[in-house]
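Lay summary. Proteins are chains of building blocks that fold into shapes, and those shapes determine what they do. In this project we predict the shape from the chain. Here is one chain we studied, written as its sequence of building blocks.
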Amino acid sequence: MKKGFLFYLISMLALSGVTLAQQLKLGDIDDGSRAERVHLIELFDERGQIIYPDDDPAVPFSMRQTCGDCHTYDLVSQGWHFNAVDPNVPPGRPGQPWILVENSLGMQVPLSYRDWPGTFNPEELGISTFEFTTRFGRQMPGGGPGEIPSEKFDEIMRAEVSGDLEINCFSCHSGHSGQDHAEYADLVRKQNFRWAPTGASELATVTGSAKEMPDMYDYLAPSGMADEPTVTYREHLFDNAYRVILDVGGKIESHQCYRCHSNRYVETDFSPVANADEDVHLHAGMTCVDCHTEDSAHHTIRGYEGEHKVSANPMAEASTCQGCHMGIEEQQHTTAGRFSGPVPDHKGIPPIHFDKLTCTACHSGLWPEEQTAGVLTSRAHALGTHESLRDDEALPGIITPVFVTGYDGRIEPANLVWPAYWALRQQDGITPITLEDVQDIAGPIIERMLDVPARGWPDFTEAVVEAVLEDFSQQFDDEPVYISNGRLYYLDDDVGIADTEDPAAKPYSWPVAHNVRPAAQSLGVRGCEDCHSAESPFNFGEVMVEGPVGEPRFVQMFDFQDVDPTYLQWFAWSWMFRNALKVVSISASLVLVGVLLLYALKALQSLSAAKTEK
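And here is the predicted shape, written in a compact code that computers can read:
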């Protein structure tokens, strides 16, 4: 009986293995060769039909069909860049959100499909996956919300016209100089979702706009309308078997990551240096993917300590700062010194620092100054696209570096954004008013009362806020409020507009990991005073609070740390007398040693005298 059960179990496991092996494809399995793969392949459209460059009409190729011939598309879609919409995926450490900006409505709202505290799911503001993709697909590698049908009736037909924004493998993997990210962003903005990967590649040119087409438009039956999406392939790139050679076999270079992950500092005297100096790892010849590697399922390593608890990537723990530079204690073979990284000894630094601070607190981001600086990011300000927000006043207003108590309870440097949005106050908390309702109700009032600038915050007076809230109160049963400038504004029968502190008005922050500064430029290199003096920005720097209401104000850095301000101030004050205390302590120690020696000599004299008497 036992032998029969054992045979049955082995048979089922073997069958499962065969089934799994059948699901995996050629491109999913690494055979161990480090040689560059040559991709001389045919292109297929979304119907699975081969692309001929002289087709009439010419249609865009499909990543799902073309790359999916060798790579399991559904396996790739499980990766970190694509799985945000899956509620079963652990959210992990909070990261950079997408930020909805409507300056004419006084709105700056951090959004995420992941359950990160301080962000809103786009659906909470009535933003469908279709609208989300139109707004933010410019810096998305496709997939995720780009392939989820909208539930809004008026967008169902529009989605048929635009097609899906499939995972664009070329966003990360194309090393060709003709891969045009700015063109990709422009095509997404025009809702040319099915055409975007094709038009951004070196293989073809795409013109027209699906956004301008009627709901009944069929891309397979061209109508000759103006602005109709049109594909023109570069026929000389196809061989006589209608194959193209793709530059996707090599290692992903850092400039391919920069398409969505770049920063530019503003409002700082040293921004030219900060923007010019590379991360110390990149300067040493490493690339982004040396640390942020991934497996065949595209589980990209984010690189924070503790990530291995929620990541399926087996290299997650070894790819942190500690894993590379100090090793993993539990492993038999240490991971310290990966990529020839130095093993730090941190001479003279009390061990408590490593319990209270992350590695990045001393080594990453801008060197802290008296006041925080502004930063523009690719994902927030469309850097690298035709719609790039280049001026320093561009929204969203992101400030850096702010030293906050982070995800794991340790202090870390972070970027920070203050939310601004209209909401309803209920017993169980704050619920944002949908973007459509704000546009319909608040929009006309604000336009009538203000001259809204093209960029930057409008000047919301109390009269404007009061007028909008009064109109909202007539439309909704719950109490309308406005979140801005770190405060919650509400209607008061006695004074009109009143404001108060509220958790909903707290800023959202996400960790800064780059650029990593070398040891000679780390906090503490000039001594303990870098952090512990009364003038140190690490604890006592000024953090700007800004929004549409009133003038910017400043709060102190320690407000974002789980520390007692009084203790910090007394500790910093005591630092003024540290050198004198050293002199006093050393002097007192010498006196004490002298007294002990004197008594020791007297004791020896007494012992000697006692022996002599005997």
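What the prediction tells us: The chain is about 30% helix and 15% strand.
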